[in-house]
Automatic annotation (TrEMBL):
Pfam families: 3HCDH, 3HCDH_N, ECH_1. This is enoyl-CoA hydratase. It comes from Salinicola endophyticus. Residues 317-495 form the 3-hydroxyacyl-CoA dehydrogenase NAD binding domain. Its EC number is 4.2.1.17. Gene3D superfamilies: 1.10.1040.50, 2-enoyl-CoA Hydratase, Chain A, domain 1, NAD(P)-binding Rossmann-like Domain.
Length: 722
């Protein structure tokens, strides 16, 4: 054994080929933490001392190759100054350059995921051999940074500027076929043949059949592009990527600039350009929040897996109600492999549900995402029925009938009599209390909420709502089913609106008060969209459905009258009174027409403005920052209340629910990170100023005031994101 550490071992084989194996102890994956980088330096030093080495294979003993750097270290690391970050990256560049400059041919055997720093490590070797099921990529721009360990330098020289820009700016994971097509890897083989293939590549290099020195020279030299080719490769790409990424995500465009600046330089100078740009991006709020979002997502998934460990198997499910929502749930379940019964009381409704599933499958077929055979297989997993005849074999039932407590209560009582003693009942209610719905059930311990967001196939979040009597087994089974459907479940406790809608409706409350002050709702929409929301509040209400919003606001007002009670008629109610339901019937705050793709196109409507003028109480001039404050403060305060009341278990889960459920701007990190970024004391001062005029909806909690006085945060300074 030439080297043995906690993450790396290195041994010489009979043919003088050295195999460096990555195998991080006590972890299921390999990642390039500070500790592992330290061991890699020691291993390379040991290797440089060896004589008569015929070649090097870098391989992994895990199911993955290397998933990247250790992101849990990022917040603490990026808190240091730019000079430290530049020096840190240049040290890693020096280490990777030593691997690239070894006096013998080198090859990486990529057996699984090779992402970020793992991909960059692969790029240091002369050749790369990839298993058929492996994936490779540089996703750093999704964290608000750019590849900082040579990705912006080596990849363009290896696969060409155009392909490198696409990989790096898009942050994509690329399968073996795609990687081979652009020459990112030299061979693709079955996984069990990977190491033999790597050794074969080294043998060919030693025999002179493969010129490894020429490979190195190409990676170390300037890009072979003249001025016109550079302009075509980079300027066009910057415009396209800037339009796609938007103004709040600078990393993709900056990555292109770095590739462009380094294109005419030798290796070390290009690496310096990369390191400088990396350090600048690492210090931005966008990077801080996107790294936090990644860590929060990992925590949410970890907690879901903990529930899943104790969950009973869900092999057969059913959905009650075959409308658009029921059809979407049936499609998602069937597509992910769990057969589902779809029950309704009308044949026409069943056909509507099947039509929804067929429409979604046909889109997948047209995009080449599935075959005709697979389409038929998924459809066969959906069985429409008008009776409860086969419900005795169902493990879990999702109730998705109309959002009316009496109807839901009756349907749930009816289905409970038709299913087995252990069958879980889950209501896809968006606002109605789970305890209220459980009141007439004989087995309330088997009942919980399972709130999907529309459209089901796109929205990643599922709220799993625990009622007073809900058992751990019911929650665990529902979480497991949500994960099996490809969703991110977050467990919350029962209250009107649960977490996401309870937090959303104070935001709509802020909007209604702005309208009463004579603020143009289209202006508010534009301001909030510039702030980072995918759509402004008026547009969002049209998408949600004005009737749905009014119903939900009534539930909220009943549950939280002091904050969410409505004094007089709101603009939303005026829309409903005039049968303007939003996109459902083509008119709400906006008018809608179908575009060429059949999607509703938003248009200005004078009539909507005339109607909204009815609720104006005064005319006030407010600047953009004041409008943002009046929209965001109530949303953030309600998130704080949900955390304090134990409706949600942690800041991470609260923030991820808002990002996944209602499109809270990801680069801002969530409502609680937004408060942290502003500073708790400054946020409380802003809230108190607004509360003096606007009342309880804007009043900070006593606990939040205490946090402000003590200088506390929801998230610790150095990367503690629980």
């Amino acid at each position: 054994m030439l080297y043995q550490g906690d993450a790396i071992r290195m041994a010489r084989e009979a043919d003088n080929v050295v195999v460096l194996t990555l195998d991080l102890k006590a972890e299921s994956i390999n990642k390039l933490s500070s500790q592992v980088i330290g061991e890699l330096q020691e291993a390379v030093t040991a290797l440089e001392r060896e004589s008569d080495v015929a070649g090097l294979v870098i391989a992994s003993a895990k199911d993955v190759f290397v998933v990247g750097a250790d992101i849990t270290e990022f917040h603490a690391m990026f808190a240091k100054d730019e000079a430290f970050l530049v020096d840190m990256n240049m040290q890693i560049h020096a280490l990777f350059n030593r691997i690239e400059d070894l006096g013998f041919p080198t090859v990486t055997a990529i057996n699984g995921l090779a992402l970020g720093g793992g991909c960059e490590l692969c790029l240091t070797t002369d050749f790369r051999v990839m298993a058929e099921g492996a994936q490779i990529g540089l996703p750093e721009t999704k964290l608000g940074i750019l590849p900082g360990w040579g990705g912006c330098v080596r990849l363009p020289r290896l696969i060409g500027a155009d392909n490198a820009v696409e990989w790096i700016a898009g942050g994509s994971q690329n399968d073996a076929g795609s990687a081979f097509k652009v020459a990112a890897v030299d061979a693709v083989v079955p996984g069990d043949q990977l190491l033999d293939a790597a050794r074969d590549v080294l043998a060919k290099a030693r025999a002179g059949d493969l010129d490894y020195q020429a490979r190195r020279a190409e990676k170390k030299a300037p890009l072979k592009l003249n001025a016109v080719e550079q302009m075509m490769a980079f300027e066009t790409a910057k415009g396209y990527v800037a339009g796609k990424a938007g103004p709040h995500y600078p990393a993709p465009v900056e990555a292109i600039r770095v590739i462009q600046k380094g294109a005419g330089e030798e290796r070390e100078r290009a690496q310096q350009i990369e390191a400088n740009a990396f350090a600048k991006l690492a210090k931005t709020d966008v990077c801080y929040n996107l790294v936090g979002l990644f860590l929060n997502d990992q925590l949410v998934k970890k907690r879901a897996k903990q529930y899943e460990r104790d969950a009973r198997t869900v092999d057969q499910t059913a959905v009650l109600g075959a409308g658009i929502m029921g059809g979407g749930i049936a499609y998602q379940s069937a597509y992910k492999g769990t057969p589902i019964l779809m029950k309704d009381i009308k044949s026409e409704a069943l056909e509507l549900g099947l039509k929804e599933a067929r429409k979604l499958l046909t889109k997948q077929l047209e995009r080449g995402k599935l075959s005709q055979t697979r389409l038929a297989e998924v459809l066969s997993n959906i069985r429409p029925t008008l009776s409860y005849g086969d419900f005795g074999e169902v493990d879990l039932v999702v109730e998705a009938v109309v959002e009316n407590p009496k109807i839901k209560g009756a349907v749930l009582k009816e289905v409970e009599a038709a299913v087995g003693e252990e069958t879980i009942l889950a209501s896809n209610t968006s606002t109605i209390s789970i305890d209220r719905l459980a009141a007439n059930l004989s087995r309330p311990q088997n009942f919980c909420g399972m709130h999907f967001f529309n459209p089901v196939h796109r929205m990643p979040l599922v709220e799993v709502i625990r009622g007073e009597h809900t058992s751990d087994a019911a929650v665990a089974a529902t979480v497991a089913y949500a994960r099996k459907m490809g969703k991110t479940p977050i467990v919350v406790n029962d209250c009107p609106g649960f977490l996401v809608n309870r937090v959303l409706f104070p935001y709509f409350g802020g909007f209604s008060r702005l309208v009463e002050l004579g603020i143009d709702f289209e202006r508010t929409d534009k301001i909030m969209e510039r702030f980072g929301w995918p759509m402004g509040p008026a547009y969002l209400l049209d998408v949600v459905g004005i009737d749905t919003a009014v119903h939900a606001s009534e539930v909220m007002a009943e549950g939280f009258p002091e904050r969410m009670g409505q004094d007089g008629k709101s603009a939303i109610q005026v829309m409903l009174d005039n049968q303007r339901l939003g996109q459902k019937n083509g008119q709400g705050f906006y008018r809608y027409e179908e575009d060429k793709k059949g999607k509703p196109k938003k248009l200005h409507d004078d009539e909507a403005h005339r109607l909204v003028a009815e609720v104006k109480r005064e005319t006030r001039e407010l600047d953009d920052d004041e409008i943002i404050a009046r929209m965001m403060v109530p949303l953030c305060l309600e998130t704080v209340r949900c955390l304090e009341e134990g409706i949600v278990g942690s800041p991470a889960e609260a923030d991820m629910a808002l990002i996944y459920g209602i499109g809270f701007p990801p680069f801002r990190g969530g409502a609680l990170r937004y408060i942290d970024a502003m500073g708790c004391a400054e946020f409380v001062a802003l809230a108190e100023r607004l509360a003096a005029e606007l009342g309880a909806l804007y009043a900070p909690t006593e606990r939040l005031r205490e946090m402000a006085s003590r200088g506390e945060r929801f998230y610790a300074e150095a990367g503690d994101d629980a």
